[in-house]
Amino acid sequence: MNTGEKVLSGMQASGRVHLGNFVGALQNWVRLQERYDCYYFIADWHALTTGYANPGALTESVNDLLINFLASGLDPDRCTIFIQSQVPEHAELHLLLSMITPLGWLERVPTYKEKQQELKERDLSTYGFLGYPLLQTADIIIYRAKYVPVGVDQVPHLEISREIARRFNNLYCKEIFPEPDALLTKFPKVPGIDGRKMSKSYGNAIYLSDSPKEVEQKIRTMMTDPARVKRTDTGDPELSPVYQLHKVFSSQEEQDEVAAGCRTAGIGCIDCKKILIRNVLRVLEPIWSKREELIHDPARLRHIIEKGTKKAREAAAETMVLVREAMGLYQP
Fold first, then answer.
1. Could you give the CA distance from residue 35 to residue 31 in angstroms, rounded to a whole number?
2. Which of 245, 329, 228 lies closest to 18 in space, CA to CA?
3. What residues make up the domain containing 266?
4. Spatial separation of the C-alpha atoms in residues 40 and 304, rounded to whole Å
5. Could you confirm whether 200 is annotated as catalytic?
6. Catalytic residue among 120, 146, 186, 197
7. Total structural domains in the chain?
8. What is the spatial distance between Cα 313 and Cα 212, in angstroms, rounded to a whole number?
9. Beta strands 37-43; 79-83: pairing state
10. From residue 309, how far is each of 24, 41, 83, 88, 275 by CA, in Å?
11. In terms of domains, do 166 and 19 share one?
């Protein structure tokens, strides 16, 4: 049953969608659309906060992200799908919030310095990068969303949105923005082929747009327990990224089988990977089929975005009337 309560989430258009994005976000979004009034957007402005010097790939990333949203099971009749930059009210609210947000609040966001260290090769000494959490806040509160689906480790990132909404309401003595609550989600760990967290920036990802041959090749080259040098060596499955992926894509029976086989050398790493390959391909095959259908139907994609944008703009415009009124701005 749909409660009518609003949920807001987005994904940055900074490259292709990988299995970590699918398991960590998209599968959950599909479930949420059955219960809530969900708004899911493609964050192209956010992609520019770190990729402003190379905007050429942005259009392709946006289109691919939209295709993957739909191929993963998001239904435009059950949720609102739109592109961030097509709703300029986000930018207007971002600007107005920048007038009231203390600089120190932005500088203390944990990911601000972490991301600068991670992307040392890029010049991130820009307001756009510093103001990322402020734009993110505008994205959320402009729809007066009740929930934002996040993992436990992301709750502190949502707190600044709650603080800014609270500050606005207190400054202008009007309860315009509800403070968004975290909709806690347990995101399974999805390692990349090198054992680190699956990430585009690490070059260790399996993408939804990869071919079956590419997926199979990537899994075949994955790290396993380094103690298993020979087929007869025993190992610890918990040290193997392959086993971590089994926890996501394989049945409990199969997980037990490969874990016991690893500990006793009853199964080789190649056979262990074959089981994983079969299960990953089973998940990806319907997505590939849907992707192929959507790639050849650009008119349908345009219609979905136009429909979603219209609904998003109507909701955002209603909020902005209240915001301008509260701040004493002229309205015709």
1. 8
2. 245
3. 212-292
4. 12
5. yes
6. 197
7. 2
8. 39
9. parallel
10. 25, 9, 7, 10, 42
11. yes
Residue type, 236: D
Residue 216 tokens read as: 């199979």
Length of the chain: 332
Q: Which residues pair with 41 in a beta bridge?
A: 10, 82
Q: Are residues 217 and 311 in the same domain?
A: no
Q: Give the 3-state secondary structure percentages of the chain, helix then strand then coil, rounded to 5.
A: 60, 10, 35
Show the CA angle centred on residue 297, arms to residues 294 and 299, nearest 5°: 125
Q: Has 115 been annotated as catalytic? A: yes
φ/ψ bin of 222: left (φ > 0), alpha (ψ from -120 to 50), beta (otherwise): beta
Task: Exactly one of 146, 174, 186, 200 is catalytic; name it.
Answer: 200
The reported pTM is: 0.92
pLDDT in tens, 100-126: 999 999 988 877 566 655 666 676 778
pLDDT at 115: 66
Among 115, 247, 290, 310, the one annotated catalytic: 115
* Tens digits of residue pLDDT in 166-201: 999 999 999 999 999 999 877 677 899 998 989 887
Strands (E), 92-174: 147-150
3-state secondary structure of 16: coil
Q: Both 163 and 246 in a single domain? A: no
Residue 200 in domain: no
